[in-house]
Design a protein that fits this description.
The complex is a heterodimer of chains A (197) and B (282). Chain A is 70% helix and 0% strand. Chain A is mainly alpha-helical. Chain A has a single domain, classed as Orthogonal Bundle (Rna Polymerase Sigma Factor, Chain: A). Chain B starts with 11 loop residues before the first helix and ends with a strand. The chains are: A mainly alpha (197), B alpha+beta (282).
Amino acid sequence: MTENAAEYDKKLISRLKLGDKSSFDELVVRYGAKAFQISFGLLSNRFDAEEVVQDAFMKVYTNIEKFRGDSSFTTWFYRIVTNLSRNKYHWHRRRGRDENVSISDNRFSGDGVQLDLEIPDRAFEPDRLLERIEAESTLMDAIKKLPEKFREVILLRHIEDMSYREIAGLLECELGTVKSRIARAREALKFKFAQAR
Amino acid sequence: MNTNNNNNCPSFEELSAYFDSELDQFSLEYAHIQNCDKCQRELDAYTKVSVMLKEELSNSVPDDFSAHMINSLKRRRKRDSSVDVSPFGFFFKVAALLVLSGIIVVALIPHKSNIVQQQVSDTKVAPLIFLDKLTPSGSYTHSQLPPSRRSAAGASDSIDITNMMQVSTGQMGDENLYTSSENKDSVAVIHPKVKQVWSVDSLKHAEMQFAQFAEVAKFATNNSSITMTLKLSKKNLAQFVRNCKEDGFRLLSPSQPQPEQTHFAGNKNDSVLYTATFVQSE
């Protein structure tokens, strides 16, 4: 995030606090697509991702007065997006959407390349068809199989070009943890990408 | 490119950090990576993954996503009419409207002989405020207020703000026309000009709190105090006072807006020119 972009965000926030709804729309234009990409990357489901983005913006709208600007708007906003995506992901897990998928960290080997998760085959279920199409991409498939914590960091890094420090602040974890997770996620994706070629 | 390729290649974590420009430029690993073919090939692979990832996710976004999202959010806000910018946001909205559009507040008056027209200065478009100078000082319930005062306040009844906020105001202004009561059942009479003095533990903290008012308020700051002047509605003045209390600020002028009161007379949207001075507590 450039300094100019951050400054412009501040202006939009000030205007929104004054009740200028057009500035809210502008925030949607500026960050909606990237938020969608992050959420879609985390959930692998277009409809869920869209719902998350909508919920996230509603939270921004209703809580804008609580935003003091101690962190950048993007850090605050993407934290909301990430948390909502996490909630939705775990909500679906609890209710069995992906009951056959174990995505625990134990499945992810130390070298970051052995991802042996099994995705249930529901290709012929109509409501799963779109998801399947979306998951056909090798890379997306690989992302989907990454442990949740790895997915978060690699998406924030690549989609929003966040620094390690920003990601650590957003996810409230150590800098070293971010560094390690990004590296492992990247190795896994590289491995998968090479396999597909 | 140097063809250096040895077993001293850094770990994939270091390589990944290098790829993200997060590796110390003066480290040995950094120097190695720049001159190692093997590492460079790894970096090429990272680049491909990065490009692919961005491309895939970028393509996943529908073309009309922003417009669709804006419309969806508008519908949702409309559907859930209770969702609006928080009361403090409403404060900003009202304050900004008052400042920017210069809404003129004119109260109806039955007897012109009993009023004095006072122009509130210090705003770009000064509103006209009518004050009843003949009403003696004291505490009043709304029904006890002189009719002219009730009328001048612009409302036929008091406003119960019990559920809206915890405070009400009864500022006397320079003339000390009224004093508010600490009795919760009494009605505060809010003067169109309110001055308050607050004690704060940290001026820096207060300054941060008020940074968000930059566009609607005027500030005068020195080493020992911050004075803020802005225009806002009665309702939002009460909200502001409550927020100050919640932030731990202590009111040093007890005859002025009273957090204990839950009623105030007049129209909640009536404009008030509010001056608050925040002084460092000892």
